Amino acid sequence: MADLHVKIPSLKLNDGTSIPLLGYGTGTAWYKSSGGGGIDRKCTNAIKTAIRLGYSHLDGAEVYNTEPELGLAIKESKVPREKLFITTKVITNIKDIPSAIDQSLKKLQLDYVDLSVQSLHPPRLISANSGAYSDLQSAWAAMEKVKAKGKAKSIGVSNYLLPQLTATMKTATVTPSINQIEYHPYLQHSGPEGPLLGYMKEHGIAVAAYGPLTAVTKAKPGPCDDVYAELAKKYYVSEGEIALRWCIDQDVVTITTSGKEERLSDYLRAMTFKMTPKEINEISQVGEKKHFRGFWQAKFDVNDRS
Question: Is position 64 annotated as part of the catalytic site?
């Protein structure tokens, strides 16, 4: 286990808020199918461990059913609130966003979150043929009111592809600060509708990545294997840490998780080096040779890169 005391760099969002580029997710490893059953102390303790190791960005969502655990971990950590960056996502109760945010804040034992995200779960839940883009636009207007009331410092979206994002932008008075999407070398969102990340960059919308380790953990063998192995040897880190750094070096907010302290500690080694632009581009180019989704595979055509 790496004994590191490193500073996680931050990215300034389009509203001036700074977000740590590496965050600890309270979903995949800790997801609960329902909110019943009381507090999961293992989850709470894992979040406290992450905070102790230096993870100040904590990523939650109502659908994870771990907001009570996250809130308790924040309280028990005794870290000043202003030193933490807390994200939650509205998914289950997207038709009543003000109530959903209030419920989340109650579970988190907080007065505000640093980032509130409106999420499509799964992607394409609202499609171009559904006639429901007006619902998306209304939901975003509700998010804007949440920000105006001070219950969220920043607001963003998740799982938005280009059609959903452009529809939202048509009526938005506040541009989303961020779009959290599955992102790794085998899913760079270069679909026929146009490059999603190019549109986001044009409008100052940051990228947050979930599943950044997919090419290492779920999609082997693949064309990135040799590149990852070579760079891991060069920088004396693991292939997973190369995968994290590939995102971070592109100013992509990177969300990862684990219930193991050793693994969380080792991930921080990704803060101890920077890859060259040539190395970043090589991974990007090699990654385009394969397409793989780690999440929502049943919702997309096998060749859909959007």
Answer: yes
User: Which candidate in 64, 210, 228, 235 is catalytic?
Assistant: 64
Looking only at Cα atoms, what is the longest distance across the chain? 53
Paired strand residues for 224: none
Determine which one of 31, 121, 199, 291 is catalytic: 121
Helix axes 239-248, 225-235, angle to 10 degrees: 90
Q: 33 phi and psi, to 5 degrees?
A: -70, -20
Distance CA 86, CA 116 (A): 9
- The C-alpha atoms of residue 153 and residue 13 are separated, in whole angstroms, by 11
Cis peptide bond prior to 192, omega within 30° of 0: no
Question: Is the pTM here over 0.90, yes or no?
Answer: yes
Contacts of 159 (CB under 8 A, 6+ apart): 119, 120, 121, 122, 123, 180, 181
* Sign of the CA dihedral running 83, 19, 239, 123: positive
- pLDDT tens across 206-240, in order? 999 999 999 999 999 999 999 999 999 999 999 99
